[in-house]
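User: I'm new to structure prediction. If I give you an amino acid sequence, what do you actually give back? Let's try with this one:
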Amino acid sequence: MGRTEKPLTGPTQRVELARYLRYARDAAGVTYEEMARHAVGSPATLKRTASGATVPKWQRVTEFLDALRSANRQSQYGIRTYARRRWMQARMEERGTLHLERPKPKSFVNHIDFRFGLYALYERAGAPPLHEVQEKGGAIYLPLTTLNRIVHQETLPVYRQQLSAFLHGCGMRWELGEKAWVEAYVRVTAPGADQEAGRQIVSVIRPAEIGSDFIALEWRDTAVNRGAATRRLYGGRVAAVPD
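Assistant: Good question. You get back a string of structure tokens that encode the predicted 3D arrangement of the chain. For your 243 residues, that looks like this:
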């Protein structure tokens, strides 16, 4: 099986990830050299992935597991799922966000709650590179500038499709709770729900000729006295339009 690997030291979750990768390799009964015959990287690269010296990129972990599966030619049922969980914990530990609990959309009451929930969801997904979130969710819905503002709690998704794209980019699916996020989004963006920054709803107009999904809101920001403006919601879309 080759030379004995160095003892694992360092932060708990990072060590646990490396320990699990080593365990999977030992259980498969293959060497790094054998794995490298089926991998894009060298034996040294594979060994570094399981060294525990750093938290590897998820791509490196998947390459490690793919090489392990090819070398062993056996099913990896459950291995990838558990490794992903260990990797996300290690990433959160590295970023100082292990304290973040799983967001509960049903408890959101305003924009601040929702923005923080999206931030927590992103962090619990391992804070993947924004281009990966964009690719998984759909670049047409997720401009990188918008993504950056969402993960920094500066804005909500502009419309429901963008919300779903962000959720998908973070690994969320309908059967895993996306429905609760959509319901919370509708609730916190409903007329009268936006009370952040001292905004005060002045009037609500629902033009019958356009349909029930269109709402024009006139609101006044009393905190900074910016006067009145109009906000339109269409199918969950939020856009500010000056009078």
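You can read the tokens as a compact description of the fold. Here is one thing that stands out. Confidence is low (pLDDT under 50) at residues 195-243.
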